[in-house]
Amino acid sequence: MLMQSSAIFATKPASAPLGVKAVYRTSSGDSNSMAATVRGPKWAQKTITLPPHRRGCHLVTSQILKEIRPDLSEFKCGLAHLFLHHTSASLTINENYDSDVRDDTETFLNKIVPEGRSAPWKHTLEGPDDMPAHIKSSMFGCSLTIPITDGRLNMGTWQGIWLCEHRDAPTARKVVVTLNGI
Amino acid sequence: MLMQSSAIFATKPASAPLGVKAVYRTSSGDSNSMAATVRGPKWAQKTITLPPHRRGCHLVTSQILKEIRPDLSEFKCGLAHLFLHHTSASLTINENYDSDVRDDTETFLNKIVPEGRSAPWKHTLEGPDDMPAHIKSSMFGCSLTIPITDGRLNMGTWQGIWLCEHRDAPTARKVVVTLNGI
Amino acid sequence: MLMQSSAIFATKPASAPLGVKAVYRTSSGDSNSMAATVRGPKWAQKTITLPPHRRGCHLVTSQILKEIRPDLSEFKCGLAHLFLHHTSASLTINENYDSDVRDDTETFLNKIVPEGRSAPWKHTLEGPDDMPAHIKSSMFGCSLTIPITDGRLNMGTWQGIWLCEHRDAPTARKVVVTLNGI
């Protein structure tokens, strides 16, 4: 995403340990206003494509980081926003270690959203899995906002980014990533 | 929202195709630091009122755009944040075409959240539909964050903004819209 | 979070009533470009720790405000982002008055997510409450974004921030708070 590879931050604020207690103010043409400033805030935006995944919940943290890491590393403090362009899949944050957790979550979704002959749906033209997919998409949501600290996604030890594919037929999924920070 | 109608962006970054791969840096008093800069980031905030909608899921994309489009058009890249001021309705993003999808989603919500005599709720003073409404509001959530690209909400082809009214009595609903970008 | 206690905003935009209709543009070294400008945007980020709460839904608005109020008060317009570092608890916005609403919500969550012998989960090594906790965390989500207006969280009259603890054993929970605005 970045056009230049040069460093962006002029100086670091003389702050407490980053990620714990820090404030950043950007300079705005008045060089006397602060002892420590960073250059103006940056925005970066990129549409990435996740390859087709089978129906179920999938850990995609590393796939997403592979696409955005160079840009992410330029942000001292900020927010990363991920927005899935679809209404039959979802993005959520959950456990990043045991794949059984993903399987059990898929089991849960299928248990509470009826599908097939027993289901009361009017919207059936796109297949029996389509209406359940829409419902699951609103339950988990199609976007995530994650803090950035020192060039990295500031998530908990056990947190990962999941793509939940709710359709039977795997298809590529687009995610608009917007990074904002300093 | 905007006080002036003059253009805000000084020059475009000489970037790759927008929305796909782009980075923006704001000038910060140092005119030599970049070949292409945009003026400082903007924030716009406005409280809009959605008219009363009957219980169920409603597509409100055009109602919201009508209120924010002039402001939105001033942002090259950014994020739009919508925040519903209520705990018995919700905002979600889902299918924008077939109204059956909205009806089926309402059917689902009523199916999994018990209401009336069979329901185990202690909170019943505000009517049998009130406690279910609170639960549905947390299931779908009361806020959305959507990327802005080239002056438009950057959503997928089939995505729309839904207001889900969970109370029986339709009431006007307030949404705080915050736009941030460059 | 703030290193200095001095005022940050140079001048107020000569805008319509704040929170209703307002636009803010930051100065960017060009003092002639606007009649009214504010200094550059600020970012503040802090990790706060919520003390252990018993399983269930808890109103934590005041606990969170106690930690961030001094910093919040420095923002005229912006967004507050809260990000829980855990996958077995959740953050949601809901009713702030009647504790029965929190109790009923906990009742609902336990009703739709099976636990114990009747549950179909494969992931059971961390206890019978662990897999249900993961599912509930994705249902309600682990992050919130709330508008800031005039130094305060701009929520509705009846809205509050809930921490939902989904594990039996209470533990302290970390929340990364990121404030961004002007």
From TrEMBL, chains A, B, C:
Positions in coiled-coil regions: none
SUPFAM superfamilies xref list: YjbQ-like (SSF111038)
InterPro entries with a match to the protein in the record: UPF0047_YjbQ-like (IPR001602), YjbQ-like_sf (IPR035917)
Pfam family, one: YjbQ
Domain of life from the UniProt record: Eukaryota
Protein name (Swiss-Prot/TrEMBL): Uncharacterized protein LOC110417423
Source organism per UniProt: Herrania umbratica
